[in-house]
Structure formats: structure tokens, C-alpha cells
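Long-time lurker. I teach an intro course on protein structure, and each term I like to show students one example going from raw sequence to a predicted 3D structure in C-alpha cell notation. This year I'd like something fresh instead of my usual example. Would anyone be willing to generate the C-alpha cells for the chain below so I can use it in lecture? Attribution to the forum is fine with me.
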Amino acid sequence: MSKEITSVEYGLEKIFEGAQDFLPLLGTDYVEFYVGNAKQSAHFYKTAFGFQSMAYRGLETSSKDSVSYVLKQDKIKLVLTTPLNSKSPINDHIVKHGDGVKVVALWVEDARSAWEETTKRGAKSFMEPIVEKDEHGEVVRSGIYTYGETVHIFVERKNYNGIFLPGFVEWKSDYNPEPLGLKYIDHMVGNVGWGEMNQWVKWYEDVMGFENFLSFDDSQIHTEYSALMSKVMSNGNGRIKFPINEPAEGKKKSQIEEYLDFYESPGVQHIAVATDDIIKTVTGLRARGVEFLSAPPKAYYEEIPNRLGEHMKMMKEDLAEIEKLAIMVDADEEGYLLQIFTKPVEDRPTLFFEIIQRMGARGFGAGNFKALFESIEREQEKRGTL
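-- Reply from a regular --
Happy to contribute to a lecture. Here you go:
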């Protein structure tokens, strides 16, 4: 299959000549978290990450069983949802998993077709197509289950001009800290159980028409103590990228095993968000209390010029500043990238965020895997879970 690579604002988009994309995805619409206290979680994401108040649904809007706060930064929309009584099934999710991602919503032209095409290919239905209306128009949504209890909701909003979705009102707040330069979701990583990675790779291929365009095995992703395997799935236009991880045998417990122990099922491990200026973004995040993994050793930074090779000539960032902020650097044939990972953003060692700046590179920082996982293992050792 011939293909041409071009660059677009969502990232690197792949155009497949002659391919029939039965599930055209326009981008990530929103990510919904089920959390124990949405009001406090919203305050955290505004304060620490620079998200802005966008929309609200709760008792004041006649929602009697749950409350949701919608936050926005550039193209990223987070929805934080909490149950309002003990009978809500949302409670079961929170008790089992803690705060975590329930919904990865995908923006589509036709939510009915998306549901029909995926369910006939074997997807388990989460929500049949429904039409939601208010004075601003209508939205069609449908949904399917993916790994664990995570779901994809397809959102068709071409006939809607409201603030977010019907049932939501504008959330006006006097407290809106400055954004920190987060632009869009670059990729989202899922952790699955032993021997399940290839099963879910096939599911994304067969059910959603994705392709596996990068693979890493335990010979590439390992340290002295632990290992994992990963395959990166991408949709036809390259706007949606879902790496899928599974544990591999090692001397001690891997980060994937730790996640599965505490999340108690497969689920979203981390969300990678893009920035155009990682030094400015990370400086701001650190100043607001976001905690990052410990820095690689000094030898790692001394080797950066060798690792980058010819790409070193185009590098604008100051290496001393990169080292000071504990940012990691990697390169591939197309260019280089800079990345850094937060510590888990809740008490269970589960969900965390990656901040990434791509300077042409299409990869996922393979050259940083060893240093990254050693940093994670240092945290695991402190928690007694290595």
C-alpha cells in the first residue's frame, strides 16, 4: 500500500492512497474521567495544568444522578464526572479503579454509521446511537467497549453550535489560571494483561480499521529488572494513535503489572499532550506543583549530541535548560522530539501524563525507554511495588 506523509496541526497525518476508511475519525473529541470529587479535580486541572472552565452539568441543570465539569485547553477537552448518589453505576467504576479514564470520545461525521460498522465487526455495544437536542441543535452519540471497562464514544456534532453537548451550560468562573501551552492529544496509551496485546491489536485492526505502524518488544523495552512489550495502533489519517502495552517477564514487577494491580483491569495508562514549547510548558507546570519523574543521570545528557546526530544542527533548545528540567530527547529519521512524564496524578500509581514536543520525529522516544523505565522503577521501589 503506497502512502504519503504530510504534516498537519493534529500531528503527522498519513494519507493512504486508494484505501477505504470505513471509520473516518476527525480527531479526539473529549476524554472523560470518572472521579470521586469532580469539583476538586477540576480545580486541580485548572491550577496545575492550566485548563480553563468550559461547561457544566449538574443539579442546577436538572442532572440528578451525576455532575460533570468540562475543561478546555486549545484542542484538549477533559470531562470530569462524579456520581451524586450511591446507586449510580459510576460508583462501581470508582471503587474498583479509583479516578481514571472511562471514555475516549472520537469526533466523527456519522455516529450512527460508526456504531453500525464497528458492532458488525465484533465490537460490544456500550451505547446505541442517541440524538440529544437543545436550542443549539443536535448531537448524535454512540459507543462501544474497548479494553477493560474503557469505552469509545463516537460524537457527531455537525448540527450543533452549543457550548459542549445538550444538557450542558457554560461554566463561568472568576478563577481561570493562564494556560500552559498544551495544544492537543498526541496519543493515549492503554495497558492490557499478560498475553493480551496481540488480541487488542487485532481488535483495533478488525473492528476500527487501525494499523500497527510501530512495535517494540522486550528486547527493546527493558531494564535490569523489568520489561514490557508495546504496539502502536493508528487510524487511517494518523490523527488517532493508541499504543498498547502488555507486561513481559523480568526479574521484578514491571510498571504495567503495577498498573494492573492497582487499576484492577486494563485501562488508559497515560495521556500524551503536545506543546510547541516544552521548556516553557514544563517550567510552568513545575511552578504550579506538577510532579515529574526523577531526572536521568548526567551521562544521559552528555550523550544527547551523539544520539541526535545531524538533527543536533536544527535543535533550538538549550541543553543545559533541558537537563535542568529533566526533559528527555530522542530522534528518528524525520527529526527529534522532547518528552517528559509526570508522576501519577492520583494516589493509586495508575494514570499519568506525558508532555511531548515533536520537531519532525514520528516515533515515541524509543531511545529514552531505558532511562524512563529506570526512573519509574525508582518510584516503584519507594512504593514497595517493584
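Some talking points for your students: The first strand starts at residue 3 and ends at 8. The longest helix spans residues 369-383.
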